[in-house]
Design brief:
9 helices, alpha/beta, 10 strands
Length: about 325
């Protein structure tokens, strides 16, 4: 597990010059003063807002085991993908909480729910607050289970470096290798270069894959790629890029669970689901590249039941 670090600012007192005062936590670089009520692309304030904090069973097996992952879903998101399955959460549904309450939520997941890990889902835009909370819990010895940073990889290096020493496992997306696709589907044509740089920082922080005796991941980097309908060649490009750049220093997870829940997806060719033939072609390509030990999904992984309700469970 990573060693604890002290942070250079304290959100309980004066916050002059804090990262929230001229926000550049994501690559949008909005520069807004979230402390004074200004909102950037993500829509978040400087106060933590959570949609759910509960055991989650739909992650990779090494993150779940027979315990479940302690998933903490943060409201808002800087990426804003057109096919997002969590639109309600991204638009700001959830419950605003104090830093003290946030720490209590994490300890409840560890001590009462006996979660395998703390799984921070889409945390980028709240990293200053999260870093303070984790630093205090780690320094006191209260938090002992691994911390997972679950991200789209649309992260600034500043945000990731705030987490250094407080994160054990990075669970990162690599959505696109093509600037054209990234611009069309996530309004972020620079996503490929940004995500690759972010993943490099994650590998630098967690370079060694380490599991416990039960096969639960203690340290390492997993990079996910979600196969989208009609975009087999894009998936092949993404896998080839990752394999060439990182080789065996990351473990890949090739996902078929795309579920068309958003409206207006016809215009993007995303109204259907990934066919079995499309997914098998992508997996065969991964094999042809010599990629070993990757995660893949069996059966019908594209189910609405895999998307939880963001009704404040575990937060209230």
């Amino acid at each position: 597990m990573g060693e604890s670090v002290n942070n250079a600012f304290d959100l309980r007192g004066s916050r002059v010059g804090s990262p929230y005062s001229a926000c550049a936590l994501c690559p949008r670089q909005c520069g807004v003063n979230r402390e004074e009520g200004e909102r950037g692309v993500c829509g978040a304030s400087d106060v933590l807002r959570l949609g759910r904090a509960a055991l989650h069973w739909w992650e990779e097996p090494c993150l779940v085991g027979d315990k479940g992952s302690g998933a903490v879903f943060f409201s808002h998101c800087p990426l804003q993908c057109v096919y997002c399955q969590n639109k309600e959460l991204v638009s700001g549904s959830g419950i605003q909480i104090s830093l003290q309450k946030f720490k209590e939520v994490l300890l409840r997941l560890q001590n009462e729910e006996h979660a395998a890990n703390i799984n921070l889902v889409t945390p980028t835009h709240y990293t200053p607050s999260i870093a303070v909370a984790l630093g205090e819990l780690r320094n006191s010895g209260a938090l002992t289970i691994p911390v997972v940073y679950n991200t789209s990889s649309f992260d600034s290096l500043e945000a990731l470096r705030l987490m250094k020493g407080n994160v054990d496992v990075y669970l990162a997306d690599f959505k696109y290798a093509s600037a054209l696709e990234a611009g069309k589907l996530s309004h972020a044509p620079r996503y490929p270069e940004i995500a690759l740089a972010a993943i490099e920082e994650m590998v630098a922080q967690a370079p060694v894959w380490e599991e416990d005796g039960e096969g639960l991941l203690l340290r390492g980097v997993i990079v996910r790629h979600l196969v989208l309908p009609g975009r087999v060649e894009e998936s092949k490009h993404a896998l080839a890029t990752l394999h060439e750049r990182f080789g065996g220093s990351v473990r890949l997870s090739i996902m078929s669970q795309y579920t068309p829940l958003a409206s207006g997806l016809e215009r993007y060719g995303l109204a259907g689901r990934v066919t079995e033939e499309e997914y098998e072609e992508v997996l065969d390509y991964a094999d042809s590249l010599g990629i070993e030990d990757y995660f893949w999904q069996q059966g019908d992984a594209a189910q609405e039941s895999f998307v939880p309700d963001f009704n404040g469970e575990g937060v209230r």
